[in-house]
């Protein structure tokens, strides 16, 4: 109990110093709470790269908004991490429904009576992926065939992470349009 009170008092002093632009105070809070914040985010995301991004973004926002008083840093950090995690999860759900459909179809293709349909679908899928512009195709394959993160792809190709995300979005949109008729057909024949 005494230790919690001392901890809270030291946080308040560090927060006050941070509000005045003291980077050392911010760094102390960052070092003190990084592991705690990381474990909270990782428990929900299960992806270390995404978790690092979430925690880093939250701390960047805290520094950028340092003039705004925070009375309880741990509670504030908890809510900020939770909200950022929800944003990541919502964005992921919006981003890849096309890929989820492909994976579901692939699982359905494992059944013997659907093997021929799976082969036809796979050929058409490969054909459409090969029609993507070369850079977009490479990014798409690295992300969805080799399961690299956007951070890993940007590093490997020497492009910004935003470029990777934009190219993935365009690739998915292009393929979604190409396959819209096929997914309607798959639904009609009951493969899902």
Automatic annotation (TrEMBL):
Q: List, for all copies, the residue spans of the domain called RNA polymerase sigma factor 70 region 4 type.
A: 129-174
Q: Name one GO molecular function term.
A: DNA binding
Keyword Transcription regulation in record = yes
Q: Which InterPro entries match?
A: RNA_pol_sigma-70-like, RNA_pol_sigma-70_dom, RNA_pol_sigma70_r2, RNA_pol_sigma70_r4_t2, RNA_pol_sigma_r2, RNA_pol_sigma_r3/r4-like, WH-like_DNA-bd_sf
Q: Name one Pfam family in it.
A: Sigma70_r2
A biological-process GO annotation: DNA-templated transcription initiation
Q: Which family, according to UniProt? A: Belongs to the sigma-70 factor family. ECF subfamily.
**What protein does this entry describe?**
Sigma-70 family RNA polymerase sigma factor
Q: Which organism is it from?
A: Flagellimonas olearia
